[in-house]
Amino acid sequence: MLDFSFSEEQQAFREMLREFSLKELLPNYTKWDSEGEFPRHLWKRLGELGVNGLRVPEKYGGSGADCVTTGIAAEEVGRGDFNLTYAVMLNGLISDIINNHAADSLKQKWLPQIASGDKVVGIALTEPAAGTDAAGIRSTAVRKGDRYILNGEKSGISAATIGDMFIVFAKTDQQSGSRGVSAFIVPRDLPGMECKGYEDMGNVLIGRGSIYMSDVEVPEENLIGLENQGFSQVMNGFDLSRLLIGLQCAGAAFQSLDETIEHVKTRHSFGKPLAKYQGVSFPIVHHYTHLELIKWQAYRGLWLRDQGKKHSKEAASVKWLGPKYSQEAIHECLLLNGHYAYTKEMPLEQRLRDVIGLEIGDGTAQANKFVIAKELIGKEYKPY
Ligand SMILES: Cc1cc2nc3c(=O)[nH]c(=O)nc-3n(C[C@H](O)[C@H](O)[C@H](O)COP(=O)(O)OP(=O)(O)OC[C@H]3O[C@@H](n4cnc5c(N)ncnc54)[C@H](O)[C@@H]3O)c2cc1C
Questions:
Q1: What is the CATH number of domain 8-120?
Q2: Residue 371 Cα, ligand 1 centroid: separation in angstroms?
Q3: What is the CA(362)–ligand 1 centre distance, in A?
Q4: Does residue 373's CB lie within 6 angstroms of at least one atom of ligand 1?
Q5: Of the candidates 154, 164, 193, 160, which has an alpha carbon nearest to the alpha carbon of residue 52?
Q6: What is the residue-wise DSSP string for 12-53?
Q7: What is the pLDDT of residue 178?
Q8: Which of 61, 72, 231, 297 is the S-S candidate for 112 at Cβ 3.0 to 4.6 Å?
Q9: Which atom number of ligand 1 is nearest to the Cα of residue 126?
């Protein structure tokens, strides 16, 4: 049997979020960017609507929804405010990691606060000398009695300036490569933690930045999963975030196409609506087709994850092409709307800046092609 339909419940959730996104998020999307303010009240509002707790089990205050439903949230929030899709992606990724691998006491402490939107959480893997080559991280976590002492610098971290807690990857075994990495829950307010923001081109209010750890002490229970297994256990979560990112970007691009279709039906040149010219309608069709392909590959990947089936290759394909197709579509929409779209009066220039960030964040195209090549051709042909 092959069935591409969403359940009635999923459809109702999509409709509710579409309305919320277009009525309550979209009108202020550019305001937060221009004022450089993080709208924490909207993050909380997403919690009330059940968006933050989709991957949090009911007993910890979430809805325990499936991954496909989480994808719907990414797509629909993306229509109204691309930056707030980080609530879907970061919370989905981090809730899955905590729920699957963390100690019970940590689940009880963090999952309800993630679901409600009271706490903002981030994930800190990248370092100044290790991005694509993530196994090359140098931050260390040294065991001392019943605690770990963390030292090092994380860079490029989303929510560095607004986050209350980070999942931090650090080396617990200096001798082995990726096998010597462990993941820890590290609250931001611990002594020795310092976070500094960047002046980014997009995703401004998400406060990307660097985290400096100087003798930060965490209890041993903050280790997530087994020591030295951070990569093999915890990084499987990135298959979820990659699929969600494809839908976040596609949501912003679909909204741009919808707005552009309205524009070309009403704007005239040479006595006719722009929409009558194939030089205008074909680019719209071109990008719509790309976005539909990405959307369905993303939902297929999420469905595979829900079934407990392999989906790394699918996730990597969506992460590689989703942000790329979306920024191309938004760019074209900007051109089709003419010079006003080049101003900050319209959301298109910001969508373009915002979406481009996720061509890099969570792994570049090349990093994702490694994943696909490894599965398609064989891991013995990996370049590293
Ligand atoms: C918007 C945004 C959000 C982010 N959020 C987070 C976050 O929350 N947490 C986090 O840990 N990190 C985050 N990052 C960092 C991101 O994951 C890294 O920037 C990314 O993995 C690339 O690493 P790098 O910047 O060090 O580039 P490098 O690894 O130095 O790569 C530079 C270029 O070389 C290419 N390249 C590298 N190696 C190869 C190779 N072997 N073959 C071919 N090409 C190669 C890359 O594809 C890239 O184009 C974010 C980045 C951005 C832009």
A1: 1.10.540.10
A2: 14
A3: 7
A4: no
A5: 164
A6: HHHHHHHHHIIIIIGGGHHHHHHHT---HHHHHHHHHTTSTT
A7: 62
A8: 61
A9: 11
Q: Are 221 and 106 in contact (CB under 8 A)?
A: yes
Q: Classify residue 7 by burial, with Cβ atoms within 10 Å: 0-12, 13-18, 19+.
A: exposed
Confirm if 109 and 50 have CB atoms less than 8 A apart.
no
pLDDT, averaged across the chain: 96
Q: Which CATH number fits domain 234-381: 1.20.140.10, 2.30.30.240, 3.40.50.11890, 1.20.58.100?
A: 1.20.140.10
- Measured from the Cα of 358, ligand 1's closest atom is 1
Show me where the domains of the chain are located.
8-120, 123-228, 234-381
Q: What is the DSSP letter of 269?
A: E
Q: What is the pLDDT of residues 250-284, one digit of tens each?
A: 999 999 999 999 999 999 999 999 999 999 999 99
What CA–CA distance (Å, rounded) separates 274 from 335? 12
Buried-state track 101-118, b at ≥16 Cβ within 10 A, e below 16: bbbeebbebbbbbbbbbe
Evaluate if residue 237 carries a pLDDT over 90.
no
The CATH number given to 123-228 is 2.40.110.10
pLDDT digits (tens, 9 = 90+) for 54-109: 999 999 999 999 999 999 999 999 999 999 999 999 999 999 999 999 999 999 99
Whether residue 360 has its Cβ less than 6 Å from ligand 1: yes
- Cβ contact 87:51 at 8 Å: yes
Q: Is 363 in the pocket of ligand 1 (CB under 6 A)?
A: yes
